[in-house]
Hints:
The protein has about 260 residues and is α/β, with parallel strands linked by helices. It has a single domain (about 10-255), classed as Vaccinia Virus protein VP39 (Rossmann fold, 3-Layer(aba) Sandwich), CATH 3.40.50. The chain has helices at about 10, 15-25, 45-55, 65-75, 110-120, 140-150, 160-165, 170-175, 195-205, 210-215, 220-235; strands spanning about 35-40, 60-65, 80-85, 95-100, 120-135, 180-195, 240-255. Helix 5 (about 110-120) links the parallel strand 4 and strand 5 (about 120-135). Helix 6 (about 140-150) packs across helix 11.
Amino acid sequence: MSGTAWDPEQYSLFADEREQPFWDLAGLIEPRAGAMLVDLGCGDGRLTAELFDRIGAGRALGIDSSSEMLARADLLARGEVTFALGDISTWRGSGCDIVFSNAALQWVGDHGEVLGRWRESLAPGGQLAVQVPANWDHASHLVLAEVARERLGADAPPDPVATNVRRPEEYSALLYALGFKRQHVRLQVYTHLLADTDALVEWMKGTSMNRVKRLLQPDEYESFVIAYKARILEVLGYQRPFFYPFKRILMWGSLA
Ligand SMILES: C[S@@+](CC[C@H](N)C(=O)[O-])C[C@H]1O[C@@H](n2cnc3c(N)ncnc32)[C@H](O)[C@@H]1O
């Protein structure tokens, strides 16, 4: 994922809704005083720093590939909380007590290999906590894929969630194979009441639409958003408020 498409302002428009899964995932962690915590795909680092405080970790390292996100995260860096540019698809650490990743793994493929590397980064007794969206089959995402195909043809980027994210039971088996005998994997539906269908477009501009934005000139992107909005209205009708159920997979495992 290119770093240049992320817009921290747009992403934070729905900060409360996006934050709940982060804390649900954090709730699965068994806190260990002084733990070495790594947050992969840490975004603007605000939640990384809060997580560090809440679980009483000894050190936290946030990794992200977006220079826009990291510029914000760096403002929050303090002695034991640091941030670095990096690619979570190839990242490998060592001696970590907690490898945490909220809403980032879906951007990369080969989850077996990637989670294998994250597992190798853990110290004995280490914990892995990962959340990925699984909403690719909602109209919001299907329409995005459809309009992208119409506008970009063969260059239309595939929906990474549809392509990369697996079923909950597959993650459970994968975690087991990686040595996480103790685990918790669940599919959770988050219910969001957005102001109206237009707000759904703003939601999508903050995340999934980035994969199209990075391929288009600004005027082409503007026209893409208009076409997406029109198609959403055709498919869903104008709804005020708009009830947006959003499926996510939360997984946690602990090594012996
Ligand atoms: C949806 S945001 C989530 C941010 C943060 N984890 C949170 O919960 O607020 C996804 C983040 O993953 C980062 N990301 C996407 N692909 C990445 C990659 N290959 N390596 C590192 N970071 C990546 C993006 O830059 C973005 O900051």
